[in-house]
Amino acid sequence: MNRISIIAESATIDDRSRRLHLIVCLVLVAGFVHPCGTSIATAQEVETATPAETDEESPDAAADAAPMESTPAPPLSPPPVNAEIDPGQADLDEAVLKRIDAESNGDLEAVAALIESALAKGLSEENDTFARKMLGSVQLQRGQGLAGAMVRLRGRQQLLARTEATRALQDAIDNDPDLAEAHMLIAQLNLLPDGDTDVIRESTTAAIGLYADNPIEQSKAYLLRAVTQEDADKKLADLNAAIEANPGNADALRQRAGAQLQAGDVERAVEDLQRVLELDPTNQQIAQETVQQLVDLDRADDAVALLSKAIAASPSEGLYRLRAILYRMLEKEDEAFADLNKALAMQPKDPLALLQRAELALGRDDVKSAKQDLKSATEIAPQVEQIDQAIVVRCFIAIEEGRMADAISDMQILIERNPNDTFRQLQLASLYLQDDRPRQAIETLTSVLEKEPGNSAVLRSRADAYLAVGEHSEAIADYERALDEIGDQDDEENTAILSGILNNLAWVLATSPQDDVRDGQRAVELGERAVELTDESEAHVLSTLAAGYAESGDFDKAIQWSKKAVEQGQKEENDQIDQLEQELESYRKNEPWREKQETEENQLPILSPEDLIDT
């Protein structure tokens, strides 16, 4: 060999040896065994290399190597040793070299193209097997890279990356069906919108078999297949298999709990949820999800017990705060307050715990403490001021301080964020009534009834608003509709609403100045039902029954029930005791009671959020 051909090949035998070493390392790392007899320098070539061939190049070597135009350039490398058997050997060797430094998707595409070229030209059986394994590995890496890049893409680009990733992964499997990672990634890509559930089942089934010696990964494959199972029994079977393979698979336990709930097996579902939290008692996200599912099952006590175990294992601010929420649900205000104090002792600058404690302070009529906690929370994290919980606290502080316009403004913000929140709309209507804005209350409630015409609570509230403006016929119509909607429902919530409707309807039928709407007999009938529902314990309800008897002309009974109303009012320190006594005097004179409310509409403007008074 002349010097020029040696330089053009690979500079020095030492460099060439290092390249061979890198190739061997790559093959070993990839789990492949490269066959002998390649065109790359063999051990024999290295041993027989002459000293002249291993000398360093001179600085002008590149210029010396440039061929003259009249002289054909010598070949850059000698023909492969086994060219007749492996015509694609050169491409395969180059692919191996390029694989070492391949980093980008473009680099990997180039490597794949070389391997495909080698396969097309022809390789020995041994080399063919090796090449296909290597091509599978390259395409898997391409697919993984493209799938990872999807999170940074949007729209059409993301869809194209997904398509290209899926194609690369399928090529990987076509060349090496034993690539479990490729099967799993294909399944995961098909979980995205417009994915194919049949492909997910096919891919995960293949992965389950390939992961026979890897129970952790096999458990993941079972879980992924379970997601696509439409048959409840098959889904549960896959979840059971996932948990059997890896009892610590919390996601599989959560999924199985959900499947058991759908099947009506609440007890086993709760057991699985408890195991989830026991696996990682410090994971607040898992704790919150588990607790929420228990609460949805009306198992708040079990949720508290579970959190108590988690706190005993590893106390944290977040767990104390979560248990405080549960205690509030269970109306255990003292326990909730104690947990929030512990949470704030561990993390004094937790704005959420401060807001929760502010809400509890309002429930204790401690407005000063509520204001202080709200102020501290917003100073720690100014953005907290815009979350619903902070707005609610600010709203109720304003109510306690008599700043109704500020409270209304805050409630309007909450409704704008969630226009379908009927509870907030009822609260807004109540605030309008308290601020002498009954027309606005009627408007708000009417908009709700357009969407929920059968909502008895809203009908009752609008009837109350109609009374406030003296529109008794409209009020009676709404009360009657509300009674029809409740019907024979006798649960606790409807009983509370029912007693109020009965009382208010009986009152307007007994006391309205409008002759055409009064009905003493019906007022007595409704009043008696209201008194029975409230166990004769509410002064204003007793007063209503007395007014019904007076309207029907039975003043003896009117006086009897009116006396009871006054006595009860004195016991409960009713703020309407003066009117109750005036009603009694009227009945003693054989005069029925008349009342017509005509609230003068408050015309003052509602402040915008920017103009709210600083609390």
CATH class wording of the domain at 489-609: Mainly Alpha
Number of E strands: 0
Instruction: Report the span from N to C terminus.
Output: 93 Å
Could you tell me the CATH topology label of the domain at 489-609: Serine Threonine Protein Phosphatase 5, Tetratricopeptide repeat
The percent range for strand residues is under 5%
Largest sheet: none
Helix share bin: over 70%
Structural class, by secondary structure, is mainly alpha
Rounded Rg = 41 Å
Task: Explain briefly what this protein structure is.
The protein is an all-alpha fold and 615 residues long. It is 71% helix and 0% strand.
What does this protein structure show overall?
There is one protein chain. By secondary structure, this protein is mainly alpha-helical. It has a domain at about 490-610: Alpha Horseshoe (Serine Threonine Protein Phosphatase 5, Tetratricopeptide repeat), CATH 1.25.40. Helix content is about 70%, strand content about 0%. The protein is built from 32 helices and no strands. It has helices spanning about 5-10, 15-30, 45-50, 50-55, 60-65, 90-100, 105-120, 125-150, 155-175, 180-190, 195-210, 215-230, 230-245, 250-260, 265-280, 285-295, 300-315, 315-330, 335-345, 350-365, 365-380, 390-400, 405-415, 420-435, 440-450, 455-470, 470-485, 490-510, 520-535, 540-550, 555-570, 575-590. Helix 16 packs antiparallel against helix 17 (about 300-315), helix 20 (about 350-365) runs parallel beside helix 22 and helix 21 runs antiparallel to helix 22. The model is unreliable at about 1-80 (pLDDT under 50). InterPro entries: TPR-like_helical_dom_sf, TPR_rpt, Ycf3. This is Tetratricopeptide repeat protein. Keywords: Membrane, Repeat, TPR repeat, Transmembrane, Transmembrane helix.
